[in-house]
Amino acid sequence: GERGYSRSEKLVDLSTYITRDIKIHLPLIPSPMPDVINAHIAKVVARKGSFPIFPPIYSPEEGAELISNHKDAEKGLIENPFILSPSGLIKTALEAPYSNIPIIDDGVLVGMFLSKKYGELFYRETSDQPIRNAMEKDIARVSVNIREISENGEPNFRKAEQLMRSRMLPALAVLDNKQKLLMLATMKDAVFKEYYPNATRDKKNRLSAGLAILDNLHDENKERIRLAAEAEVDLLLIYPAHGWNEDVARLEMYLKRNYPQISILAGNDSVGQAVAMHYQMGADGVNVGQGPGSIC
User: Fold this and answer.
1) Residue 30 has pLDDT above 90, yes or no
2) pLDDT tens digits, residue range 17-27?
3) For a FRET experiment, which of 18, 124, 139, 154 has its CA 20 to 30 Å from that of 203?
4) 3-state DSSP: the chain helix, strand, coil percent, rounded to 5?
5) CA distance 184 to 82
6) Measuring CA to CA, how many Å separate 255 from each of 237, 251, 280?
7) pLDDT band at 194 (very low <50, low <70, confident <90, very high)
8) Sign of CA dihedral 63, 65, 67, 69
9) Environment class of residue 78 by beta-carbon count within 10 Å: exposed (0-12), middle (13-18) or buried (19+)?
10) Is 269 left (phi over 0), alpha (psi -120 to 50) or beta?
11) How much is the mean pLDDT over the chain?
């Protein structure tokens, strides 16, 4: 017979917080091990609503590059986008790793090269001509003043997306009052947000990610932390076998003093005193439990 309920009304909300500030929709976090997490899997994990943490095996430079590339996958409003000059060649634009390129002359937006508008083959016989011959020159159509897409004093990607849809544009340049380029919005990122509504993202609408670090204050670990912070890592996981020790406490104090914008997850913990210590040192979350191996 008829069942007196609706599936849409009975769905379970599994979302939770892994730190004070980071919310996830899928409460299953892959272990930060090299045979579990890589660059591709990290994107899948974040898009599905969990939180990827890269393992501590990489050099400081490699770890920062992983974080940076991960966040570049979906940028929302892109700061410092790739640009070209109107005197550059069309073939240079076609060879670039981007489809929508702001054209800048003397610091001012003068056009937008939209390679997908006609397709690469369209430009085959004119590829040695300057970009000014092929760029979109209607500045009013391909750009917007930042004030028009701002909300509560901050640029809002959804407002930029609405303009791109209404103008049927693949990209939109965000300008200041002097026509200087500030950001670039693309419909590709809007599509990603529709496909993955539960993705774990940062305040700039980029995919979130963390990095596991060792429990010491050696120079290499400090450099790893510094470069990760420059790459705007969302979380640092202090990842010893046993988290209840003085090295972890000193590292927690160092991180909260020097990098207060980064969430700190500490562990591994098996006793209540360890959790209390992390709380007192300022950690934003704890990793509870330990493996069965002898090192733990």
Assistant:
1) yes
2) 999 999 999 99
3) 139
4) 35, 20, 40
5) 9
6) 11, 6, 13
7) confident
8) negative
9) buried
10) beta
11) 90
Q: Is the pLDDT of residue 9 over 70?
A: no
> Is the model's pLDDT at 153 over the cut of 90?
no
Binned at pLDDT 50, 70 and 90, residue 8 comes out as low
Write the pLDDT tens digit of every residue in 230-265: 999 999 999 888 888 899 999 999 999 999 999 999
- Rounded to 5 degrees, φ, ψ at 246 are -65, -35
Report the chain's terminal Cα–Cα distance, integer Å: 55
Residue with tokens 């940062």: 202
**pLDDT score of 116 more than 80:** no
Contacts of residue 238, defined as CB under 8 A and 6 or more positions apart, other chains included, come to: 212, 213, 215, 248, 251, 252, 264, 265, 266, 267, 283
Residues 6+ apart with CB under 8 A from 120: 94
Q: Checking DSSP bridges between strand 235-238 and strand 263-269, what pairing results, if any?
A: parallel
Please provide the DSSP assignment of 94-118 as one string: HHSS-SEEEEEETTEEEEEEEGGGT
Structure tokens belonging to residue 286 = 């704890």
CA of residue 271 relative to chain centroid, distance: 34
Report phi then psi at 66, rounded to 5: -60, -45
Q: Report phi then psi at 61, rounded to 5.
A: -70, -40
Phi-psi region of 189 (alpha: psi -120 to 50; beta: other; left: phi over 0): alpha
Read off the pTM.
Answer: 0.76
Residue 292 has pLDDT above 80, yes or no: no
